[in-house]
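Feature request, filed as a ticket because there's no other form

It would be nice if the structure record came with a short human-readable summary line next to the tokens. Right now we just get the raw output. Example of a typical job, pasted below so the devs can see what we mean:
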Amino acid sequence: MSLLKMVFVSSLLFAPLLSIISSNWWLIWLSLEIMTFSMVVCIFFSNSLMKAEVSMIYFVVQSISGVLLLVGGTYTSLITTNQMMCSFFLVVGLATKLGLFPMHFWVIPMLSMLSYWQIGVLLGPMKIIPLNMLYTVSADSTLWFMMMSMSLLSMLCGGILGNIMANFKGVLGASSITHSGWFVLAFMFNLMWMYFWIYYISLFLLLVSMNFLSSEMASWSLLSMSGLPPFLLFLAKAQVIMEFTSYVSTPLLLIFPLGGAIISLFFYLKYVYSLWLTHSNSYKVPTLMCILISSMMQGCLALML
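Raw output as currently delivered:
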């Protein structure tokens, strides 16, 4: 059994590499489905009490989105008629894989039932191939407009959902929805992979700290994921927003990234403050609050400048 799990875990690592070095659409899709099947097997053979239910839900959702991707991608490249319907299939399949609004319905319930290491795989390596598929979508203006609309709405949707979540894994799911929107927006300006790796390093440190019950490390990782200065994710968000400002014709569209970032900040700070109140000495809390207030002021000044 352990050998079988090692085989599937290895496929989770090598399938993204196969998709990156390949330029063939069917091979990229095949590598994505190999990853999906490997993830289903890893969930099924885990120690979770709900492993059968979780693996079945994940399999059904990802299989449907995989079929939509295959049909949409194949017919878009081969057929000149009914392009709108093919484009719709492609965008819906890709949005489901990434967990973008309005195809985010599975993200929070799924993450709430997974272990931390499974969450780390689902929010990291499993997103590499769908993000790589954005290069195919970006060639079509209609497809790209649909993806951009979903990404901007995901920023607001994730922030709102994060503030109503009652458990930490649900917050991670809402955060994933928000950051998926940022991935797509950053793609426009060739900043996607920089943003993705900064985000994933922060997420990885957070999940490690939660596994080892290190509240202080978890607090700093949450602050990093929130995008507060002086953390790197703040610089990445600031760069994306500056590029987006010069790209859009109306400043009203800035409401989506800025509003999503501000709304998301509330639930990040809520959990950071809760961690420090619960696990830290009382004299450390005022120091942390001073840091938070200072960081928020710096962030507002930087965004205004």
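Something like this underneath would help us a lot:
Confidence is low (pLDDT under 50) at residues 281-287, 293-305.
The chain has one domain: 2-304.
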